[in-house]
Sequence to fold (328 residues):
Amino acid sequence: MGSYGLFRCASYAVVAAKNHFDVLAWTCTSLDAAQLVADLTGEYGVYDWSGLEDQAPVYNQHIVQPKRLRQYTSLRKAGKLAYKSEVWEKLALPRLRERPDMRVVDFGAGHGDYAKKLRPEGYSIDDYEPYRTTPGKYAVDIRGVVSMVRTIEKRLAAHGLYDMVVLDSVINATTSLDYQHWVLTAVNALCAGDGTVCIGTRNLLAEQAFERSQHSTSRESTRLSFLDHENVDMRFMQGKWMRIRFHTPESLAELLGAYFGEVTVAGRSNATLRAVCKNPLPLSDLDYEKALDEEFNMPYPNDFRHGRHKQLVENLVKLVKERNIARA
Fold:
């Protein structure tokens, strides 16, 4: 005999179905269906995920890193690439091809697919991902992470701040408002005074539109979002809890306006909101030091941090001060 339960929300049904529990449900006549839908889809508050915070450390986020530029497996699409990045394809690449001498850093690059593809073509692109995994394995490649830190350190010492910074699918994976602030402060720091930042993150409007469609009651029901007061959803994937953060065009523009003097947001109807930012604003020395210390020395299981970031942070803080003074 399976477990039974009375449910009044989609989340219970999704959990029950995933765990192979039986669900006892009541039906109503077609004449009453509209009123029932209105009753069940009203605003009843927000979710509270605070009880799961300890089960969703920041290093869990590497599980959801998108894999870009993979080959289609079907013969019909043989030789074509799937899973392209809207940020790279619509924002970064057109600028890079117009100015192929630009120096670029892909911050929070995941698997680093675009950097790996473009470097052999002669483009100067560095990438940094604190949770880069060893190919074919689950474990984080700490030596590879330190190598990326060293590369950026040397590049900054030799050439200064970057002409373009790419931040693709990073804001949506920040586990707290502090990490969101540290990420954007680090990106502000890496960007030259006349540089450009290309950003992409999850679009709350597109997610809400999806849920209002017929997909929300189909086999795609795992896409349902249960948001807290910060528009964060908790999802259980590959045996781990992780956070997914959503923004509207308005909230993203307001957020980015605290770090950049010029912000243009696009992609209102797309799953990915895109933004182009220029004119990095001066922030406090304490903000830079704290953010860079956190972002280039991220926590790992068992309270481990590699600690190989200090020279990079020192050089970067110096360069940022020079940039801000020159633009004052």
The longest helix spans residues 142-159. Residues 168 and 200 are 5 Å apart (CA to CA). Confidence is low (pLDDT under 50) at residues 1-8, 215-221. The two ends are 72 Å apart (CA to CA).
